[in-house]
Amino acid sequence: MASILVFFLSMAAGVATGQPPLPPHTSSSGKCDIPAIYNFGDSNSDTGGIAAAFYPPGPPSGETFFKRPVGRASDGRLIIDFIAEKLGLSYLSAYLDSIKADYTHGANFATGGSTIRRVNESWFTNDVSPFSLDIQVEQFSQFKDRTIYLYNKAENEAQRSNLPRPEDFAKAIYTIDIGQNDLAYCFRTLGVEASRTAISDIINQFATSIQQLYGKGARAFWIHNTGPIGCLPVTYAKIHNPPKGFHDKIGCVTGQNAIATEFNKQLKAKIIQLRSDLTGAVFTYVDMYSAKYQLIANAKDQGFEKWSTICCGYHDSDDDVYCGNSGKINGTSVFAGSCKDPTKVISWDGVHYTEAANNWIVTRITNGSFSDPSISVDETSYLIQNPRVFPAPGLDHCDKATHNQPVQKSMVTTSRRGMVRRPNETMRLIVTTFISVVFGFFLGMNLSSTLLPAIDLGYIEDKYSGLSSQALLNVWSSIRRAKGISLHEPEDTKIWVPTNPRGAERLPPGIVASESDLYLRRLYGSPSEDLIIRPKYLVTFTVGYEQKDNIDKAVKKFSENFTILLFHYDGRTSEWNEFEWSKRAIHVSVLKQTKWWYAKRFLHPDILAPYDYIFIWDEDLGLEDFDAERYINLVKKHGLEISQPGLSANSGLTWQMTRKRDDSEVHKEAEERDGWCSDPHLPPCAAFVEIMAPVFSRNAWRCVWHMIQNDLVHGWGLDFALRRCVEPAHEKIGVVDAQWVVHQTVPSLGNQGTAENGKAPWEGVRERCQKEWTTFQIRMTLAEQAYLKTMNGIDRLNSTNS
Asked: Does residue 458 lie within any of the structural domains?
């Protein structure tokens, strides 16, 4: 672990000081120094913050290692403690604990019960900390400003003895482990499935905090995703006779883990985006969910008792006696002390992990197999043993003893930043080493970099002179993958990753491509150069050739920032080649099918992952007064997750809600006919758009797609149910008045029915629509009743002060 993070931080230090990313150099007398850790999070990494702010935990917490309570939710050390040990640093002092605090090597801002978003609960109701992530970041900001001031004002070393050096902030590692309490809060207030709608806001708030830390000089981020919240033993103890499918094969709550998985998916996507936005930073995403689930699923094989065993505390359907407290279970007085051997138990108190489990997890996340990028001890050792991969000078944060070898000045030049290097040497050595490794393993030997002198790599440095430290980490991830192509891999090597998508459990996580896109690719050249433009939005039309002129006008309203996808219900596709834009469009043809049939089968959310907004529109829309880019800007401005353009007065209006207004940019409520709106926040007076021209955010579409029924092809009833996919629906669903369209009410598929029993074709289609409406309402009601029935008697606490 130490060598991984040393490499990780040394690269970030290079960014912070204006020098190239550098690996650690070691000698018999010294090693590179990571000066500090600044930690943010909840009780998974709280080393005394909430104990200092409120009530400290009593015995038996801390008994295994510290031999006394020390403000940790465990019998001993936490993961953050083991990380500090591996780096040779002292345990982190909590920012809120002023007694004998030592901030020389960092500080801990985490507190038990913390959330990413501020929530309307307190420590005294549901153990929710007032120190949410944004508050922790503000505390760090004050900490940095004040300690730098005091350090610079100090008159001697004694006055600086407990303060961090100002230059260490740029070289420190910033660790973050938070999010579980946000999900627990959503479970309590929204229910499990509806919690999905809140994830986007939570992740955006997380990103804001990261950007603020970056603005305060943070450059190296080590971010844990959230663990399998459905595997908390305290929840397992309260559920008896659950319905089929409620638990997974090892007993974890399926629905809760699905939400945690979605949270992690969006978190990783956001980190990928942050890598692009904050090019001076290094981000390592640690898949803590998979590491913990692997331990839970294989508890006995790893020397632990059943994963649901709780070491300290008693919990059943009706009673709770929390760790270190006295109470009654089934009328019997008990004291909740610790178990006989905490080293054999995974869960300390039903929510948090024992020291033994924390140690097991730490040893597994040090080899890079649960991280992105995948940097392991082996790679770091390789870099240490091959120091010419990067130029040696510039490691000003390493021990002086590491710079024993003199630099031959006649062979080097000095850049504007004072950095000593050979011309083109950095990129030449990176690429040469990469080629050597790959060729070497394929040929069964290592090729020296000197054997490739004829390759002129100067153009590479010119092209990639701005290569960020994150990009260099990715280079070394590639080396790892190349190096992993071994002709001598043991035959008995087996992979089973239960958190991979179903059917892909036998694959290493790094090769699993669970998402895709609709970007068109070339059949030649380099894959990395395929895409000149990556469209951010998708627009689909379900069309017949008779509407070609209208569609031609409509498509021209969308820039190259949109992928165009046409669903052809009449089977005629080749005729569209008369339009130049059709050559970059995607055409899918199935006879006499509706747009919702197409959407369910071709617009899976994992296929649409790159698109921020998805337009799923009918063919009979007049867009003369519509501007797609301005529409997107208004949607973002007003926070709409589901929307539609306003309909002009001559559009054959059905609902007042969708009528265009002349005095506003956007409206979210309307007055309907008497008796239609018992609640002004519910459809059709609010939280409502029609299904002719809806626009969905990426996250909203993920929910809506799952709500579309395979056999209900007309989508009737969806408009009234869209509110279930965003929260609060009356704020996040609306009509954009400033960008309006005309609904031309062309029958199209309405005439594709069969004339029978004296009825016209369109009448048969309309009857089917009405039947689908009724069927959908019944299914939704029954599904909701079944879910609520399973929740009876289940304590929704899932509330954790973790």
From this structure: no
Within 8 A by CB and 6+ apart from 341, the residues are: none
Q: Strand runs (DSSP E) across 648-728, as ranges?
A: 666-667, 695-697
Integer Cα distance of 147 and 138 in angstroms: 14
Task: Please report which confidence band the pLDDT of residue 193 belongs to, taking 50, 70 and 90 as the band edges.
Answer: confident
* Domains held by the chain: number: 2
pLDDT at residue number 88: 87
Domain CATH code at residue 591:
3.90.550.10
Q: Which CA distances in Å does 753 have to 266, 593, 599, 747, 748? A: 42, 11, 20, 11, 11
Alpha-carbon distance of 180 to 210, in angstroms, equals: 18
- Judged against a pLDDT cut of 90, whether residue 9 lies above it is answered with no
Would you say 316 and 341 are in contact if contact means Cβ atoms under 8 Å apart?
Answer: no
Please state whether 368 falls in left (phi above 0), alpha (psi between -120 and 50) or beta.
Answer: left
515: in domain: no
Residue 341 domain flag: no
3-class secondary structure per residue, 529-551: HCCCCCCCEEEEEEECHHHHHHH
H helix runs in 307-424, sequence order = 355-365, 377-385
Sorted by sequence, the CB contacts under 8 Å of residue 227 that are 6+ apart come out as: 44, 180, 260, 288, 289, 292, 293
Q: Average model confidence (pLDDT) for the chain?
A: 81
d(C-alpha 112, C-alpha 801), whole Å: 5
pTM above 0.85, yes or no: no
Q: Can you read off the two tokens belonging to residue 280? A: 């001076």
C-alpha closest to that of 36 among 9, 61, 62: 9
Q: List, for residues 433-478, the tens digit of each pLDDT value.
A: 454 444 444 444 443 333 333 334 443 334 344 444 455 455 445 5
- The per-residue pLDDT for range 115-164, each reduced to its tens digit, is 999 987 777 777 789 999 999 999 999 999 999 999 999 988 888 888 99
Q: Are 389 and 23 in contact (CB under 8 A)?
A: yes
Query: Could you say which of 303, 328, 360 is where a domain stops?
Result: 303
Give the C-alpha separation, 35 to 396, whole Å.
12
SS3 category, 721: helix
Q: Are 587 and 566 in contact (CB under 8 A)?
A: yes
Supply the residues annotated as catalytic.
43, 349, 352
Please compute, for residue 676, the number of CA atoms within 13 A of its CA located in the half-sphere on the CB side: 15
pLDDT at 530: 83
User: Where does the pLDDT of residue 496 fall: very low under 50, low under 70, confident under 90, or very high at 90 and above?
Assistant: confident
Omega before residue 387 within 30° of 0, cis: no
- Boundary residue ending a domain (237, 269, 303): 303
Q: Which residue bears the tokens 């279930």?
A: 724
CA distances from 599 to 434, 609, 704, 711, 765 (A): 44, 14, 10, 12, 19
* Per-residue pLDDT band at 75 (split at 50, 70, 90): very high
Q: CATH number of the domain at 251, please.
A: 3.40.50
Closest Cα to residue 93, out of 79, 83, 78, 105? 105
Q: Look-up: residue for tokens 């912070």?
A: 16
Report the alpha-carbon distance of residue 758 to residue 776 in Å, rounded: 28
Range of the domain at 613: 537-752
Domain-located, residue 413: no
Sign of the dihedral through C-alpha 186, 188, 192, 194? negative
- Name the amino acid, one letter, at 18: G
- State which amino acid sits at residue 204: N
Q: Radius of gyration over alpha carbons of the chain, in Å?
A: 30
